[in-house]
Amino acid sequence: MGEIKRTRAELESRATKLGARVLELYGDLPAEQQDEVLRPAPQRKLVLSTNVAETSVTIAGVTAVVDAGMARVQRYDPGVGLDRLELERISRASADQRAGRAGRTQPGICLRLWTERVQRSLRAEEEPEIARVDLTGPVLQLLSFGESDPFEFPWFESPPRPALERALELLRELGALERAGLSPTGRALARLPVHPRIGRLLIEGAERGVLEEAALAGALIGERDPFLRRPGPPRASRHRSDSDTWDRILALEDFERNGIGASLVGELNRGAASFVLRARDALLRDAERQTGTRASGPGDELAFRRALLAAYPDRVVRRRAGEPQRGVLVGGRGVRLAEESAVHDGELYVAVQIDAGRAGERAEALVRQASRIEREWLPAELLRSSVETGFDEASGRVVGWKRTRFLDLVLDEVQSNVSEEDAARELAAAAAHDLPRALGLEREEVAAYLARVRSLAQWMPEAGIPSLDESQLAAWLPELCAGKRSFDDLRRANLVEFLRGQLGWKLAQLVEQEAPERLTVPSGSAMRLAYEPGKPPVLAVRIQEVFGLADTPRIAGGRVRVLLHLLAPNYRPQQVTDDLQSFWSKAYFDVRKDLRARYPKHSWPEDPWNAPPQRKGRSTPQ
After folding, report:
1. Whole-angstrom distance between the N-terminal and C-terminal Cα of the chain?
2. Quick one: DSSP state of residue 583?
3. Minimal CA–CA distance to 3: which of 70, 64, 76, 60?
4. Would you say residue 168 lies in a domain?
């Protein structure tokens, strides 16, 4: 409306000189003035219209359309929790509809105030309103008509389910719903022709003697902000209360009484301020008529702040300890209080206006307007206490907390005891997400045993040996976690013995026999075998310790040859082979020739087949 009137002011004198009349057309125009626009007239008419004229009416005699390519579109604004009109580019379908106005009764022209390049970038069609607006009001009306389930209502086009869920949740938080349907508060809200959030503010304002201030706050919240944002003096010198909204109310009341546009909050846009005041008057008339309460002069700030809480229970913020500018909002999102806010004390406040950032963004939101509240004001029906268990990642322990919440916002928490059963359940759930850390699978003895079992399961599939993969280990977690409360407790348990028990005596013995931990070599040393699934086992042994061993050792029922890493006296591999006979027959003599001079104290016999093995340095002649 404001843009239409400003455009008329620009065109009026020129149109008069040309003998044309400038007429306005918009939804709130009185019926007789709308009829005047629609009736044929002897002189040329210049009609200034919103997009209401796209489909609603046909105006006879139109031969030209000038299209700015823009429209005010109603869209849910998470910053204020209400729908707002936003200026957006129209779609190609809307542009075609507007152009068609110029050719309804005779040929005409359309002047589009944008480029062909912009035309190609326009979206094909408008997004349906039901997919972009807040549905709290419509859902409230459905319930007031007797509809019991909005999800089952035969919508012409079903809205997104999350939008319906959000609407019902807000109605519950506003106290509009009870088990049988609408509560008395809900029925009162349904009678007010405003968004339920604003209606709740008006009802609470009437009960607490601040109806006029509540109506002005409702107008401020629902309409364009009349205060110009610009850098100002330090915060401490700008506030008159513990509520940014109350400060704005005082500034608007000063403007109404004395015409003062400058305030501690900021400079007022006089046109926007006057519009907000008129919106207040309309809200006040509706509220007085529906509540039977009359505004009774200046109200109390504390009462107003309590009324604001009733309208914004889902916007309660708890400050972070030691960080007064930062807090956590109901729902779990982090917020940061604007530097210019008046609310610099107190544990809790209501975030009346939030710059929520881009859709899906989880960074801290900026609270531009806040209002301090006290804990004892919180509605008892939205408070709950519970004992909860959880897993603390930092300490690796199951912990218990007794928490008091307002909706899902934690207000208090103290440590609490955890039963053995709950501890085992939480520990098992946490361990399932990080088995290596929880069970210490990287420990040498555990990793070695798992490698032995997994390797033998591949070599002897007919034995039915479990693979002991992570899914199998996770299935045994409830038993492993019984009586334990931390990852440390789990790691202190003898996991290898537990796994042997799960295999059973027969399979455990098979593992010991066919995938032994150690092999005894001719020197008498029991040498450790290294296993890795998918590869042959490795035996690292000094050459002198296997003199007299004619054949390569085998395991897994003789199916798998051991890969020998034959070491020099310095314990570095000198030869890798799984064919010991071939080594003694050929490669040994090259090795002997190379190492004999470097390690003269060690035995290098010409006949390794029959030479006595040695554990340490030589004691026999060369």
Report:
1. 112
2. I
3. 70
4. no
Q: Which residue, 494, 514, 534, sits at the end of a domain?
A: 514
Q: Whose CA is closest to 440, among 389, 487, 374, 500?
A: 487
| Best CA proximity match to 241, nearest among 321, 345, 348 | 345
Q: By 3-state DSSP, what share of the chain in percent is helix, strand and coil, each rounded to 5?
A: 40, 20, 40
Look at residues 177, 167, 174, 178 and name the one whose alpha carbon lies nearest to residue 136: 167
| Residue 389 vs residues 300, 386, 433, 474: alpha-carbon distances, Å | 43, 10, 17, 21
Rounded distance, CA 437 to CA 446, Å?
12
8-16, long-range: CB < 8 A, 24+ apart:
8/48, 11/46, 11/48, 15/46
Phi, psi of 340 (to 5 degrees): -80, 0
Nearest in space to 340 (alpha carbons), one of 436, 421, 264, 443: 264
What span, in angstroms and rounded, lies between the C-alpha atoms of 514 and 503?
Answer: 15
For the chain (622 residues), the mean pLDDT of every run of 10, in chain order, is 89 93 83 83 88 67 91 77 80 90 86 95 90 92 94 92 93 92 95 95 95 96 80 52 94 92 87 92 93 82 96 96 92 90 92 70 80 96 92 93 94 91 95 94 95 96 92 94 95 95 96 96 94 95 94 95 94 93 92 89 91 70 36
The reply to whether 616 falls in a domain is: no
Q: Are residues 87 and 217 in the same domain?
A: no
Tally of structural domains, the chain: 4
Length of the chain, in residues:
622
**β pairing state of 177-178 and 181-182:** antiparallel
Q: Sign of dihedral through CA atoms 345, 212, 275, 282? A: positive
CA dihedral over 453, 456, 462, 468, signed as positive or negative? positive
Please check whether residues 60 and 103 belong to one and the same domain: yes
Q: Are residues 482 and 557 in the same domain?
A: no
Cα Rg, the chain, nearest whole Å: 41
Torsion of the alpha carbons at 323, 326, 329 and 332, rounded to the nearest 10: -80
pTM of the prediction? 0.67
φ, ψ for residue 125, nearest 5 deg: -140, 165
CA max distance for the chain: 134
Boundary (domain end) residue, out of 114, 131, 148 = 131
Does residue 251 sit in the same domain as residue 364?
yes
Looking at residue 357, what is its pLDDT? 57
